[in-house]
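Q: Sequence in, structure out?
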Amino acid sequence: MSQALPPYRRIAEKIITDIEAGRLRPGDRAPSVREIERAEGVSAATAARVTAVLRDRGFVDTVPGIGTIVRSPSPATAGAERLTRMLSARPSIGEGERVELLDVRREEADRAVADALGVEVGTVVARRRRRYLDVGGVVAVSSTWVTGALADLMPEYEQLAPLPKMTFGLVEERTGRRVARRRDTHEVRPVPLDVAEHLGVAAGTEVLVTVNHYWDHDHQPTEYAVDYLAPGRRLVAESDV
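A: Exactly. Output:
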């Protein structure tokens, strides 16, 4: 943990690590303001800021008469955030999170996939589907598509095994094409049948969906991804200003 962080941020990150690692589980009591004050040797005002950070980032709820409770489920991590983690040399998978590879296949591109990858409808593309889970259960079901030509250059993409550098890194390694631009779209959609079984909901259930488009420096698409988030999940984005 960086000692350069303000005390309230350093303490908050320590508690978040405990939550993501499963040492504090959904429904457990998180340290109270008074407990933080005593354990960390900080002022009441600083301890209160810790709780505010945890609440604002979606990790805890404050329940009157009970205290500060670890929220269930935890916030979800979008594919674009995994790219940010990878580019900053951090693990793309958070602590307490794991990934299951569901299937890899070639299929004909529908209109959305074709438009995103710059190919004709019906062109054969490669799809890779994964399910992310954490201590709260299923986080999201994520599908990523690349063109068949690009998949031919990286056979690992079509193997049912983890990609250490994710798709972003593999594309750059094999082609020299580095992701330069992305567009993230968040919307509510009904869950299709082939995703519903992995998400643990009935087909047609409306959930939050994140759609990611990626382009290289020549403005050519590199990949397209769609994440269906489990009900109750929410995305939290945070950055320095």
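The first strand starts at residue 60 and ends at 63.
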